[in-house]
Amino acid sequence: MLEIRLAILFILLAVLFGCDSPSIAFQGAPMRVVTIGPSTFSVRMRDDRVESIRTSREWRPSASAIMERAAQAIEQATGCVLRKGSLTGDQAIQRARVLCDNG
Predict the structure, then answer these.
(1) Which of 84, 34, 18, 90 is nearest to 43 (CA)?
(2) Interatomic CA distance for residues 80 and 62, integer angstroms
(3) pLDDT tens, 12-48?
(4) Other CB atoms within 10 Å distance of the CB of residue 85
(5) Per residue in 50-65, pLDDT tens?
(6) Fewer CB within 10 Å of terminal CB in the chain, N or C?
């Protein structure tokens, strides 16, 4: 019985710690947390590439609403503008390229 409880605890902890894990390309990149409406995103940037992970719990959010909020979160977190047509992803993970004014 104890072994089953430990296994359940391990699974729950793995799920909790895995909720905001970046892809390999973004590991170690600084993260900013941004909330747009009911959605919260962890946004990481490396060069001109950005990955956002929605961490908020929302019941069946529409893909179009999440993508619009993700675009806003990415621009707010990076201070850059999205490259037209570069935003891809789904309700969980979004990726884009940005244009930054460095001068």
Answers:
(1) 34
(2) 25
(3) 555 444 466 788 888 889 999 999 999 999 999 999 9
(4) 8
(5) 999 999 999 889 999 9
(6) C
| Contact (CB, 8 A) for 52 and 33 | no
Domain boundaries, the chain: 29-103
Residue whose tokens read 């992803």: 89
How far CA 5 is from CA of 2, 10, 33, in Å, comes to 5, 9, 33
Q: In whole angstroms, what is the distance from residue 11 CA to residue 67 CA?
A: 30
Q: ∠29-64-18 over CA atoms, to 5°?
A: 35
How many Å apart are CA 6 and CA 14, to the nearest integer? 12
CA dist 57 and 46 (Å) reads: 26
| Residues 89 and 50: beta-carbon distance below 8 Å | no
